[in-house]
Amino acid sequence: MVQIPENPLILVDGSSYLYRAYHAFPPLTNSAGEPTGAMYGVLNMLRSLIMQYQPTHAAVVFDAKGKTFRDELFEHYKSHRPPMPDDLRAQIEPLHAMVKAMGLPLLAVSGVEADDVIGTLAREAEKVGRPVLISTGDKDMAQLVTPNITLINTMTNTILGPDEVVNKYGVPPELIIDFLALMGDSSDNIPGVPGVGEKTAQALLQGLAAWIRCTPSRKKLPVSLSAVPKRWPVS
């Protein structure tokens, strides 16, 4: 069981929770007929998080408007996603105002995603010995987990430390990027390597990790490339 250190820096993935709350809560409206369901969900989550952990330092991070550097690297990045629903878009600015009214710093940096901002802040805090609790529903964030950086998903009531990441994904946090790159990530429209699914990606990376651990003895890689279906030419 993961033990949350006292007084962690809490970083909230506002964009992740905004979408999740939109789909998890009924389409509520105020007396003027304006949509409020997603706001209600996010604010409830923030209130619960603050009451439970009583942080002295926290920030809520949202995606900024416009494209990011990933769109320049890969033109199909997230291109399969439908446009944001109008009734969700209408809740963004009011939600930002409410977060600020709660006294919480709100961050949105142009050209990058909320994930990037959270990752940077988490690593910088870790450097100075500050424990970090990242509140998110995004699996990509598992790459950040260390003994000092923990993930919590308040909507599913799950907490991930290093051991929990291995149990959930089959690879340690430092290999999450490679894991998703190999198998692909349908939520971001990342195709991955043809013929490589979750189990094959896990096997290849577990073999790689074992090989690295036994260096410099140079023992044979436990998993051979024959584990990968031959669906593309190999030179």
From TrEMBL:
<dbReference type="GO" id="GO:0017108">
    <property type="term" value="F:5'-flap endonuclease activity"/>
</dbReference>
<dbReference type="InterPro" id="IPR036279">
    <property type="entry name" value="5-3_exonuclease_C_sf"/>
</dbReference>
<dbReference type="GO" id="GO:0033567">
    <property type="term" value="P:DNA replication, Okazaki fragment processing"/>
</dbReference>
<dbReference type="GO" id="GO:0008409">
    <property type="term" value="F:5'-3' exonuclease activity"/>
</dbReference>
<dbReference type="GO" id="GO:0003677">
    <property type="term" value="F:DNA binding"/>
</dbReference>
<dbReference type="InterPro" id="IPR038969">
    <property type="entry name" value="FEN"/>
</dbReference>
<keyword id="KW-0378">Hydrolase</keyword>
<dbReference type="Pfam" id="PF01367">
    <property type="entry name" value="5_3_exonuc"/>
</dbReference>
<keyword id="KW-0540">Nuclease</keyword>
<feature type="domain" description="5'-3' exonuclease">
    <location>
        <begin position="7"/>
        <end position="233"/>
    </location>
</feature>
<dbReference type="InterPro" id="IPR002421">
    <property type="entry name" value="5-3_exonuclease"/>
</dbReference>
<dbReference type="InterPro" id="IPR029060">
    <property type="entry name" value="PIN-like_dom_sf"/>
</dbReference>
<dbReference type="InterPro" id="IPR020046">
    <property type="entry name" value="5-3_exonucl_a-hlix_arch_N"/>
</dbReference>
<keyword id="KW-0548">Nucleotidyltransferase</keyword>
<dbReference type="InterPro" id="IPR008918">
    <property type="entry name" value="HhH2"/>
</dbReference>
<keyword id="KW-0238">DNA-binding</keyword>
<protein>
    <submittedName>
        <fullName>DNA polymerase I</fullName>
        <ecNumber>2.7.7.7</ecNumber>
    </submittedName>
</protein>
<dbReference type="InterPro" id="IPR020045">
    <property type="entry name" value="DNA_polI_H3TH"/>
</dbReference>
<dbReference type="Pfam" id="PF02739">
    <property type="entry name" value="5_3_exonuc_N"/>
</dbReference>
<dbReference type="GO" id="GO:0003887">
    <property type="term" value="F:DNA-directed DNA polymerase activity"/>
</dbReference>
<keyword id="KW-0808">Transferase</keyword>
